[in-house]
Amino acid sequence: EVQILETGGGLVKPGGSLRLSCATSGFNFNDYFMNWVRQAPGKGLEWVAQIRNKNYNYATYYAESLEGRVTISRDDSKSSVYLQVSSLRAEDTAIYYCTRWPLFGGDYFDYWGQGVMVTVSS
Amino acid sequence: QITLTQQAESLWISPGERVSITCRASQSLLYTDGKHYLSWYQQRPGQTTKALIYHASVRTDGVPTRFIGSGSGTEFTLSIEHVQPEDFAIYYCLQTLKSPLTFGSGTKLEIK
Question: Which residues of chain B have a CB within 8 Å of the CB of A110?
């Protein structure tokens, strides 16, 4: 069974940094691209970042609105993906979801985690 | 970037009815492989977000046949036939043709 669990959220002061973790199990993590998607309270979904697998040289892609402040990374030995967010602003307050990109059969997010809440406030 | 427009913020329907949710893209989502890079997702409170449709019309594993994706080019529709109580949720479209990936603003299905 595919499992995705995000951790590392919480209350952070404006200007601060945060590292979110996403631990996975139930599939061969090394093969998959992984993404982060976020959702501000009462708002819609916003894609944040993608990291590809070793075959694609771990290429990374970012939403323009966040580029320069976020870094996505992965540790295949731990089946985990991470999101480092710096210079946090109130508008970064959101639930952050970790999602999987299927290996074959289509470019979409086939599995999502429950999400982790990040609140940016003084 | 590609903008996806879901005109209807909310749709009110009764269980058992048929409903269509539309998603319009600012440019064609057709790739050279002949596939459209448009997918649909369902969000229900307390549940993980669920992928329903990819490539505009392909249902993901386990999705009931009452969910039907259609459309081409820039106009796409998610139809739900004989809406069930568990279908009252928020639905989003997503384009994965070009980075940055972008979502529609969402359509909430509400009980009339």
Answer: 51, 60
